[in-house]
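Hey, can you fold this?
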Amino acid sequence: MGVIVLNADYLPHQTVSVPHAVRMLVRKVAVVEEAAENRVIGPYPWPKVVRLVRYVYQRWIMPSDRFTRVGMLRRDKYICRYCKKYGDTMDHVIPESRGGATDWLNCVTACEDCNFEKADRTPEQAKMPMLWEPYIPKGKF
């Protein structure tokens, strides 16, 4: 069973695990509003409901206009755009040596084999069509 997290204005925000709630208490971004009787975790009462008292920055939300390699891998769900296998390398559709940019529309996830096979060529030159086109993600990914 999870711990209910309330906003500073006492409206429900989310439900988190007990360890997560305790970390929030340790960081002093939340206080216990309701606790289980006769149960403690270290110096804290066993939380059932906590309330946020400070703004919490959620670092996993990245602006979609800022390109990062990790963001690109997440966008593609770590699936190679050429063969659908697991991919963890970045491939430039138009190679950098030919003027290709490092951005959302020119970079895709590729497996090591496909990235090596495509090398310094475009997908058409390598006869390796992409299974779907790159795009700029919107919001969370």
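Oh, and this one too while you're at it.
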Amino acid sequence: MTAGVGRFYRQGDKLRGRGKLEEAVKAFEQGLMIDPDHLQSLNDMGIALHDLGRTEDALAAYRRVLGIDPDYVYSLNNIANALHDHGAEADAMAAYQRALEIDPDFEDAIYNLAVVYQEKGANKKAANLFQRLLRLDPDHATARHLAAALSGATTARAPQEYVQNLFDDYAESFEAELTGDLDYRTPKALQDLLRRQRGRKSFFNRALDLGCGTGLMGQALRSHVARLHGIDLSTGMLKQAESKGIYDKLMVGDLAERLQKRGPKYDLFAAADVLVYLGELDDLFAAVRQRAATGALFLFSTELCRKAGYQLGASGRYQHSRGYIRAMARQHGMSQIAAEDTDLRQDSGRPVRGQCHLYAINADG
């Protein structure tokens, strides 16, 4: 590596790691003025450009790499990512497959190709690839979870690492995709249920938004509460929520674990599109009751399971039956106020059927 280009490459790599993407691109460009064929600089500049949403520029950078070295697997994987985001699915799959012809154990390409197959509904092919990845990395939490989902197995909950990584990666585009392509309705549906059932009484001293994400549920709750707290596993999501300025306090951590610690009592708990990452709900319901003030309410959504109990779907999300929710609530001293069937959002052009629930909590005192 030429000394000059190496310095600019390291500088760009460091800036990209800090999220300073525009500055990173400039550093890579300076290095490429010294050595226009420096593959690492071209490849990593492509990643920064892709993260900036400059897809065409990213594709051009990757093509420059592959014009120099057609077998450069990192750029094959990265150009496939950009093509996939650009809607060129067939070209993306061909690039992933080419990378795996060169390096059959290239874990990123295995994972990314599996995700594309999952999105296409080719569940068997996707499951086989996730299993292949697990043979290389048995601790890969996402592969383990999705392999189970695609094989029809039902686990107790999604791994924390899977949920955290999913939403950290998704944070910046989360709201645009949900409220646009996926027609996400859950926060509004929960707010409407609360208003219909409580009327003028739908104002609360302190509320906790469980799995608050970017703050869509918090926005729906803000006019109903004096103090609003939020908790989420994803620091990326919390950063987006903080920017809205609607929460009085935000916390990072697992929901049940965080609630089991000492802290204030709440008279409203809300969980929009959160229980879909938990199969077994015993720990969460117990923790909610533990932190409930007298007269507290629990407002939440679930995806609907037609079978008894709960199950893990091929999407990696859990569905819960009406009977399971009622039984879990009774076990933890909660009484149903209302439960309404509704369409929560779209998935692959089809409505996702679910329920919005409102329960009164018999607090432990």
